[in-house]
Amino acid sequence: MANSAKRAKRTGTPPGGRTAPELGETAAERPGAPSITTNQGVVIADNRNSLTAGARGPTLLEDFILREKITHFDHERIPERIVHARGSGAHGYFRPYRSWAALTKADFLQDPKRKTPVFVRFSTVAGGAGSNDTVRDVRGFAVKFYTREGNYDLVGNNIPVFFIQDAMRFPDLIHAVKPEPDREFPQGASAHDTFWDFASLMPESLHMLMWAMSDRAIPRSYRMMEGFGVHTFRFVDAAGTARLVKFHWRPKLGSFSLVWDEAVKIMGADPDFHRRDLWEAIDRGDFPAWEFSAQVFDEETAAKFDFDVLDATKLVPEELVPLTPLGELVLDRNPDNFFAETEQVAFHPGHLVPGIDLTNDPLLQGRLFSYLDTQLSRLGSPNFAQIPVNQPKCPFHNLQRGGHMRMSVERGRVAYEPNSLDRTAPAQDPDRGYVHHPEPVEGPKLRLRPESFADHHSQARLFWTSQTDIERTHIVAAFRFELSKVDTVAVRERMVGHLFDVDAELGGRVAAALGMAAVPGRSPSVASPPPSPPLSIVAKAPETLATRKIGCLVADGVSGTVVEALRRAAARKGATIAIVSMKRSGFRTEEGEIIPADFFVQGGPSVLFDAVALLGGAEPPADFLRDAAARNFAADAFAHLKAIAVDAGGVALLARAGVGEADFDGAVVTLPPRPTPATLTRFLTAAMRHRMWEREARVNAPV
Ligand code: HDE
């Protein structure tokens, strides 16, 4: 048979038919692969051509295969989350360090030998599902524990406080930060008039704004950020004793952030930077881990604080209540399917298990309504709990029936309780069931903010005074950037006025940075609490290269031995190197070998790496020194305060990028043609510091 006739037979087109030669095999040619079928299980012979009357004729309505395929495609999308639309998830487990029976009866906190499966979703808040990962924003940190007593969701953020105190204000807050409704921009950005207009009219947001303008809002990686339950919850033990509790997640890798200019450039270089980072780390077996801790205290202790623990704009300083490390969370498996798992997972602060209870925090109380409600429009049915990622992994049965897309098939006549007809039907269980903490409640019905929620400045100031100079400068620079995007002068001024109320130095520096002629001369009347060092991430940053990436920009003619030595030395510190070359295929070593590249220079700018090596060889080729992408690679690495290893060609490239040898500091390490272990160690030790903060004052104008 001629080739075209063979193909025609395979695909169902007439010999000499209209299809171009097709690639791809049939099921018969792929042993073990299943035949493709319709949703009804009918095997499809031709998945490429619709059914037509004649080779060039109209498509037939009777083509049930085409119609099924296209109809399903037309309905592939579901509404994205109103907030936290962009996210990434992973599976893993939680294991307590020991039994915490003295604090809570929660089953998953009883036995250090037992792992509880979890699904975790990290997210940004403001942007749509297709927005950038490295925007300045709060990050969601939502954990679903599939415990033996039902699902427990801890739906937190990477910042321990929130913008508002009462759920009533949430729709306004979100409408203010989302793209402005007449123009639908900016996407995933708080730097615009409506957000700052709202914020400047809401002094209760000041504490959270301090965090949001800090480097916490531009994390280096989801794997390197803290998480918080935000609200005050309750632990209840088997005797019924309740204690107040604040939850914390601390990353085992330490907390690290990007620098702002880098975050901005990553948005172009790799909009999926955080998603890819999480996926790749889990894929290569670098399982991210966090320590789960709690601040546990009683009502009497809480009554002595000079803030209200029901106010979600306040944190409990660790100096008042230290952290008790409870156990560890490890993420060790990527989802099999993003939509089925990460998109369809439904978190809810009201998914509680015995031993964990709520408080009257008015923000939390509003959330208890919202999360169930939102799933009805997002997932389309009250049966969302039957989607595999949402299903408990313990037995569950009740008398709820029907609804769109019901998956379970309940048997029998009885779907009510009490009943006398079916002794096997589910029945209530006062011995094992969830019992709410019997908190006494009384009072008149009113819409009134408690007096104890009134101080909006002390903890904003606590955050400011607890930061290192480096972090304070970044906060000022962030306010400058954000407010510089606000066109309405009165909004800028109102906001800067509030910053004066937080701290005169902060207000003065932001006013000066914005070039405000008349600065509101207010001075803060708030007390100055003693600094709380754990609030700074620079102060507590560990020196490590674990799981980090070093980008090696390499020209043709560089010695392969040098690259290999660097690779081995980096691996000993737990880091990997990526080869960035002038050609995607790789570079030709001095020894004549081709070493494959991971990136073409334009696709692998230095913003994607934690440290870099610039290797041009003894006589760097002209295109290496001329290329704008190569020069930007070098200039950005220096400006973003990274450790840089250079050979002679690297020194020449830095010079072309405007960084002369006089600018070199301890973190620019010159490698001799045959680098000794000591020189490589010097470079890697500098890289372990994450950023060369001393360099910052030399590359950025003061703020
Ligand atoms: Fe949320 N929030 N939120 N939120 N939130 C949602 O629920 C809401 C708040 C948080 O990865 C929505 O399923 C209200 C605080 C995370 O799927 C929605 C209020 C904190 C996620 C909703 C808050 C959060 C959400 C959107 C004020 C930190 C993503 C889709 C009363 C403690 C979960 C959805 C995921 C998602 C409402 C405030 C964290 C609309 C009304 C405070 C991490 O129900």
Please give the number of β-strands: 18
Strand content: 5-15%
Put simply, the count of helices is: 20
- Roughly what percent helix? 25-40%
- Rg over CA atoms: 29 Å
Q: Globular, elongated, flat, extended or rod-shaped: what is the shape?
A: globular
Bound molecules: CIS-heme D hydroxychlorin gamma-spirolactone 17R, 18S
The first-to-last residue Cα distance is 78 Å
Structural class: alpha/beta
What oligomeric state do the depicted chains represent?
single chain
List unreliable stretches of 5+ residues.
1-18
Mean pLDDT: 95
Largest β-sheet summary? 10 strands, antiparallel
Question: Would you give an account of this structure?
Answer:
The protein is an alpha/beta fold and 703 residues long. 28% of the residues lie in helices and 15% in strands. The chain is built from 20 helices and 18 strands. The strands form three sheets. Strands 1, 2, 3, 4, 5, 6, 7, 8, 9 and 10 form a ten-stranded antiparallel beta sheet that branches. Strands 15-12-11-16-17-18 form a six-stranded parallel beta sheet, sandwiched between helices. α15 links the parallel β11 (549-554) and β12 (576-581). α3 runs antiparallel to α4 (193-200) and α15 (560-572) crosses α19 (677-687). The protein is globular. Mean pLDDT is 95; it is low at 1-18. Bound molecules: CIS-heme D hydroxychlorin gamma-spirolactone 17R, 18S (HDE). CIS-heme D hydroxychlorin gamma-spirolactone 17R, 18S binds at residues 81-84, 87, 121, 123, 140, 142, 155-157, 162, 167, 170, 230, 312, 345-347, 363, 366-367, 370-371, 374.
